[in-house]
Fold this protein.
Amino acid sequence: MFEKEIYIKRRELLKKSVNSGIVLLLGNGEAAVNYADNAYTFRQDSSFIYYIGLDTPGLAYVLDIDNDTEYLLGDELTIDDIIWMGNLPSLKERAAAVGIETVLPYSRLSDFVAKNKPVHYLKPYRHLNTLYLCDLLDKKADEVISGFSIELTKAIIKMRLIKSVEELKSLEDSGKTGYAMHIVAMKMCQQGVSEREIAGVIEGLAISEGARVSFPTILSMNGQTLHNHDHSGILAPGRLMLCDAGSENMDHYASDFTRTTAVGGAYSQKQKDIHNIVLKALNDSIALAKPGVTYKSVHRNAYKIIFEGLRSLGLMKGDTEEALNAGAPALFMPHGLGHAMGLDVHDMENLGETCVGYDDEVARDTMFGYKSLRFGKRLEPGHVLTVEPGIYFIPQLIEKWKTENINTAFINFEKLKAYDGFGGIRLEDDIVITPEGSRLVYEKRLPVTPEEIERAVKD
Amino acid sequence: MFEKEIYIKRRELLKKSVNSGIVLLLGNGEAAVNYADNAYTFRQDSSFIYYIGLDTPGLAYVLDIDNDTEYLLGDELTIDDIIWMGNLPSLKERAAAVGIETVLPYSRLSDFVAKNKPVHYLKPYRHLNTLYLCDLLDKKADEVISGFSIELTKAIIKMRLIKSVEELKSLEDSGKTGYAMHIVAMKMCQQGVSEREIAGVIEGLAISEGARVSFPTILSMNGQTLHNHDHSGILAPGRLMLCDAGSENMDHYASDFTRTTAVGGAYSQKQKDIHNIVLKALNDSIALAKPGVTYKSVHRNAYKIIFEGLRSLGLMKGDTEEALNAGAPALFMPHGLGHAMGLDVHDMENLGETCVGYDDEVARDTMFGYKSLRFGKRLEPGHVLTVEPGIYFIPQLIEKWKTENINTAFINFEKLKAYDGFGGIRLEDDIVITPEGSRLVYEKRLPVTPEEIERAVKD
């Protein structure tokens, strides 16, 4: 938690961005695993963390814009709560710690709705909150979901997108744990070790040093499946292990890195060649990212590097501009170059990915590959982004393009056969846009060349 | 997953237990952490696992009792699913693997509801399923929740409560990982180590060797908080670390053990005295547990041992029977002796704890302490239970009883002052009721005497 004044200032700014009515921020509740009392690790809503800072279930915040009053709503602990779950300061004390004077029981939320003023709330993504809003507003689920406040959503995105000094420190702290997770994964990347064992150890490290992982760990020899949570493989010689993993620190700021490691650190020339194209795309993207540049253009440049690299290996062919205009490199990188990161690993994705990553100037593309770019707009100092180019050999996608004659002018399908079973390589760093350009969020960079990674494996 | 025939047989038995209408088992969906696509580790519903065995989100099962037909409902993967999340066999193939012939798209569920027959479903605990049932049945959430089928619920509890040979093997497998988690925790129980670090390492081990932890790890020097998930302490000399943790294996069977370890393995005489009372309660309970005995009577016997042990230390006083009838030992053990365990660590708690643990013969008590006993009924071969007595010094509860003059005839409040800051000791093993008596689920027993634990710490 930050200093009280930070939350007060944030709420002051929020108040100025919403015209009138009631602002309602619902905190998260517990989420059941297999029965109500067996809950997943509690995760507070990120906007609630940003404005209120309190990290326990069962809270709501109301800002009455017209009367310039604010309230924290929640229920005090019972003796049973204390015996089973432990004690907490009173609601009043906890509210005071973040600069809120007035507290009310949770059930009093209905009083504010009864005032017949517009209630600004965010689109719910937790079904408990959807059910609660159905009851509170006497509406059906689809009406509740579509009835969120665009005004409030845009105001929050605008504030949260530019990271402050203290947020950058917290992101750096999270990056430190993410770094440690990847070093451990590299060292464990040895023939005969199971993917699941490594995933467990690094997820444990995220819990040891912070709150949890910032997203489910992707760790697989089958890196061509972009979000591969199947960890059933046993590391085999000659294969690559793609590890995309990060941590969430105790303040809930994320880290998110990807490295692809040759099992036992032994890269083949073929693997090095692909690795080095991805690495060039990564380094060039970081160098390009600066205020005033659109991230969509950085993504396009990454496609250019991938195209030219694969052409030099004989896997792609033709004219660069034509291939880029046709979207041909998306066969090998069907995902976006990166996304905003902060309290969420895909920052504010619950508020609408396109609303976060695009604006009136830069529109989201519908072309395959580009359509998956989560953030495309012009960069500003304080933006925090991931940069994560990759090259994958996805049998089903190659087959589809071949069968449906998609971009055949730019792809050498015959030569691709030799890459069957190659998997995929992705390399990812986290950057912050500075007034001059960009820098890594956590300044110590993970081993990233085949030679550096080989040393980390064998150390 | 077990052999196909096991699931077929289970469904055959289920069919015979429900009179008429439609049986609807909803599998679980993904549960959002901070936005829809950032999901907690997927956990299938346990009854769905038991009858259908398929472990992916977005499935439902329909059994039409009157027409003797059954269906698996779900949607096939798209090319996007395959690129991002990986491939799976077709729905038809997956259904066939568990003996179901007919598959339908998920949306076809509404056809069965339209037939105007009674729809038997279980009480939803996942809000997504509640929302789905609201839509499907065109009812409000409270109607959906109260409208579950008692007939189906009772039929399932009856079947799942008695563990088969293959289930016992799976529970043993899970116990092996739980054992390893506790050995690691004991070895790490050294001055200066943080609770969070240890919790992370053992949760990581659960992920490395299985699916996940079977419940959020309880690991704290403040063992007097029964379900303490606050891991912010740094282990200090002279203190006790209570660790209540277990794993869920890949088949989703649970383990659940508790050990309390003196930091650095150095027990004081005071700690040993309390430890040995709890240990006697544990061992006597295991010896008592056998077919025909009610678990409520075993719980009462544990209270007897705790009372007599604490009386010998001068902390309690008076006549044993009178103290037991008054519920005096509950001050020191305000929880139940144990619970059923299986696919859920509190087995079938989602179906109703009292419905699982009590029956027409043995009713749930309302007395403090007894009211928290989750399982009280007569034991039968195949029941799997935890045995987990404890003694805690809970300042807020002691203060309450003292102030409100509760059971003052049996408690020496003056002497209790010397136990301020002691924390609590709980010891827990998992047993299976056999035709002759009971045995440990995982036959290798964790170190349990102060001397054994001391050796494990120092090894």
Remarks:
- Chain B touches chain A through 66 residues (CB under 8 Å).
